Amino acid sequence: MTGLAPGPGRAVAAPGRGDGPGLAPRLLSLYTWLLILYAIVPIAVMVVFSFNQAPSGRVTLKWLGFTTAWYGHAFAVADLTDALVHSLEVAFGSMIVSVILGTPLALALARYRFRGKAVTDMVIFADIAAPAVVVGASLLSFFLTLNLPRGLLTILMAHIAFNVAFVVVVVRARVSGLDRALDRAAADLGATPWVAFWKVTFPLILPGIVAAGLLAFALSIDDLIITSFVSGQTLTFPLWIYGAVKTGIPPQVFVLSTFIFLGGVVLTLINTIVVRRNLP
Amino acid sequence: MSGRGKARAGAGSARAERAPARRRDRRIGKAAVPYLLGLPSWVYLLLFFLVPLASMLALSAAVGDPIVGYSYGGHFAEFLDAIGQYHRQLLRSFYYGALATLVTLAIAYPAAYWIAFHGGRHKSTYLFLIMLPFFVSFVIRTVAWQFILADQGFLFGQLKSWGLISDRFYILSTQWAVIGGLVYNGLAYYVLPLYVAIEKIDRRVVRAAGDLYADPASTFLRVILPLSAPGVFAGFLLVFVTDVGDFVNAQILGGPGTYMVGNVIQDSFFVNQDYPMAAALSSILMFLLMVAIFLYARAFGRERIQEYAA
Amino acid sequence: MSKRSNSGRTIDPALLRGLTEARVSRRGLLQAGALGLGMAALGPLAARTARAAERDWEAWWKQQKPTDELVFANWPYYIDVADKGAKNPSLDDFTKASGIKVKYLEVIQGNAPFYAKIAPVLKAGQSIGYDLMVMTNTWQLTELVMQDWLVPLWKEKLPNFKKYASPSVVSPDYDKGNRYTLAWQSGFTGIAYNPKLTKREITSIDDLWDPAFAGHVGMMSDITELGSVALLKLGIDPAKSTKADWEKAAKVLKEQKDKGLVRQYYDQSYITALEHGDTWISQAWSGDVFQANAKGFKDLKFVAPKEGVMLWHDNMMIPVGAKNPLSALAWMNFYYTPKTAALIEDYVNYVCPVPDAKDVILKDLQDPDVANSVLVFPTEAMYAKAHDFYTFKSYAEYQSWNSVFTPIIQG
């Protein structure tokens, strides 16, 4: 890392001396763009090859010519579409349940001192820090032990289990940032705690809840490792692809992923714009 | 999406603790409130996180075979068998994890630094661009690398046809492909905590160092780097744990001799049906990582790591 | 019971160290609770349900009511497709003829992984949701039979099998009298290669050990296939091999790996690696190579090496708990007609179990390449080169093979 060393100092010093950005920041800027390029290359491959011809119905390495045919047949591979539907179901389900479960705990952690708080913190941290393969293997051990058939329900249970912790952390950060004076004011004006919560606190932490929900949704829809343990014979979108890689993936995989990509980007941009607008 | 959520989560949970609002503590039932609020999550995490860990440990010591089934017994030798048979894969996982995480740090830091200090009005745009891979499924990203790195693919195929590299040259199926995949997939996870940490550094401190005639190198090494340490450590933890437990990169990009412990656990469950072996290996992995994490947390403070990691 | 609490107590230290800190009383409480739950849950796994003895399957079959559904689990790219993957003409013909709707699922990627997915469900006495599935004549098939997890077929409803089946799939060694299975396809395991990259003809299994191809040799991760090819290389008939032979075979495989010859141990993905040029020469299944040729990878060639090829059979079978067993029989019978077999064969290009399909492919489908291929409609000379897999007589024997060959792929 010492190679970067000249950068910061010059960077900070230069503007003071009024001779424009120095060499190091310019190099770093170039570097950042290269890193962005590196981050984007695989995405470009995905998008570009979703327009490639594939006479065999499988994606090929060679460029065989431009076509939009796969977009016309985006949902032609029935079990891939089913898998995507499963993924969406689990993502919605786990988003909603984990927000409902996690938000109250986040409130408790942010606003109260209580015996067991340290342990709770520890468990939440362990849930986030535990490697996915261990979480998956332990859930599978548990389901095997219970003789519980694996399927959509066990996938949902597993996803809630890891999402709860993320929701707690995200919402808690939002709650902690709030000014307690507001609900004390509400209480002084005679509001019951219940009313004060719904009229004052809840609207204020709502952005945190939404952010937590979006994070939960994103984590769920992309999860492969934990899901691979608890899915039984049910396939989610990532699992289907993971299986199909062995024999070659149909172009529809790239098409649907491009949709998801664009959907995510658009949603985020809208979210950003809305948040900016609401800021004073 | 996850990136944005994470960014926001970074702010402010360190200030979590405030004096409870005494005045509302009039009613006796008040003390029960945090427990009632926490109960649903607790029950859930108990049932679907802690109990499963316990049942995994119990399964490690089970006896039997796939035909007659497994029953619980005190076969603790399974742990020794697991280490005896698979210590290479275990060590390899830690080696790949450490190397990949260091490389990720090395390539992420300069960009995070530049965005935080020189990004100007477009900071969030740069971050957003680096975060774009988040919007593409992890498997797809890895598959895309398999495409890019293929021997006769558009990259190496072209270089080979120009005679720039030997026909025999390949990266796919080597440990470099696996480590490269881990690096790529960890990048966005590392840039974010680094950015948040560097962004928080008070510019006046940096300027003061310059005013005191610290040369750029020592300003960086003695001021900026230490102040960004929380991000460095939090990101390291997050990326390292993810990398050590990964099996997807090794499966899609690896070759003979790149088996990681995650692959062995997968095989034991889903090919050989050797549940005790799978459970024992996961338990060992969990134990090793937990020890590492808690030493790390003790040295560094869990609150801060958590704050950045999430 | 005492055993359980034993294992319970040992859980303690690791969990303790791993998950908690301070506040002893709470932690103790929680753990007691967690362990209590965990232990309570151990029951079902420990108690293995005793299988019902011989059932009167004839009577069972007669009780079954016809349904208009069929759930068919198969391997990927193992049936005819049309219209960009949206249609399967053979299945559509079947639906037209019988009124039975087919849910066709490409969920089988390998015998062992698929078996490991369904076994716990079957063991729990639950339905796996498939009425028909296709598995190879390897250990997992033996295991399914040993565990009584297959429904014996009702021969009365399968007249076409008697009429059209190739002698090579009638009453095979692994399923005498076709009690449980009918062949879907057979196939040869030989060598595929890309002459442009190997720059020479391939004729022998020894070529898989040629240092000239270092880093570009594909081997299979299926340990039955992997062990068998090494046995053939050593001149040993896999079906008659012994444990000592297996160890010799493992030794040459290990040498091959240690010298850096092996690119990867592949599952079905070996064919993608060949297509991409990652491997120049690879263990391969006959039909895949034809399919690769058909989709534009014209360079790839399949060869039956002089040491011999492995002949395997993928079989249709009905798992217990199937909801539409009569539909499954109806499809099996429908499949064993020259027309349907030809439709499918012309796409999958393995070994056709219905010899009369040859004429249909030649005349109606006008595809002489497939019809005249000895790999699709093998000649006697071709069969003479073919070897069967070793048949494992017990789990212990399979485990022994496993322990010899698994370390090679997991290196």
TrEMBL record, chain A:
Residue intervals passing through the bilayer: 30-49, 61-78, 90-110, 122-146, 152-175, 196-218, 224-242, 254-274
Keywords: Cell membrane, Membrane, Transmembrane, Transmembrane helix, Transport
Membrane topology: Multi-pass membrane protein
InterPro entries associated with the record: Bact_Polyamine_Transport, MetI-like, MetI-like_sf
PROSITE patterns, per the entry: ABC_TM1 (PS50928)
Keyword Cell membrane: yes
Matching SUPFAM superfamilies: MetI-like
Matches recorded under Gene3D superfamilies: MetI-like (1.10.3720.10)
GO terms, biological process: transmembrane transport
Keyword Transferase (UniProt): no
Domain of life: Bacteria
Membership in a protein family: Belongs to the binding-protein-dependent transport system permease family. CysTW subfamily.
Protein name as annotated: Spermidine/putrescine transport system permease protein
Organism encoding this protein: Tistlia consotensis USBA 355
UniProtKB/TrEMBL annotation, chain B:
Composition skew (Low complexity), residue ranges: 1-14
Ranges for domain ABC transmembrane type-1: 90-296
Localization per record: Cell membrane
Predominant subcellular localization, coarse grouping: membrane
Highest rank taxon of the organism: Bacteria
Xref: PROSITE patterns: ABC_TM1 (PS50928)
Record key words, sorted: Cell membrane, Membrane, Transmembrane, Transmembrane helix, Transport
Gene3D superfamilies: MetI-like (1.10.3720.10)
Membrane topology: Multi-pass membrane protein
GO cellular component: plasma membrane
Similarity comment: Belongs to the binding-protein-dependent transport system permease family. CysTW subfamily.
Protein name as it appears in the record: Spermidine/putrescine transport system permease protein
Species this chain originates from: Tistlia consotensis USBA 355
TrEMBL record, chain C:
Gene Ontology cellular-component terms listed: periplasmic space
Keyword set, alphabetical order: Periplasm, Signal, Transport
InterPro entries: SBP (IPR006059), Sperm_putr-bd (IPR001188), TAT_signal (IPR006311)
Domain of life: Bacteria
GO biological process, one term: polyamine transport
GO molecular function: polyamine binding
Keyword Ion transport set for record: no
Broad class of where this protein is predominantly found: periplasm
Location of the protein in the cell: Periplasm
PANTHER family: SPERMIDINE/PUTRESCINE-BINDING PERIPLASMIC PROTEIN, SPERMIDINE_PUTRESCINE-BINDING PERIPLASMIC PROTEIN
Protein name per UniProt: Spermidine/putrescine transport system substrate-binding protein
Taxonomy of the source species: Bacteria, Pseudomonadati, Pseudomonadota, Alphaproteobacteria, Rhodospirillales
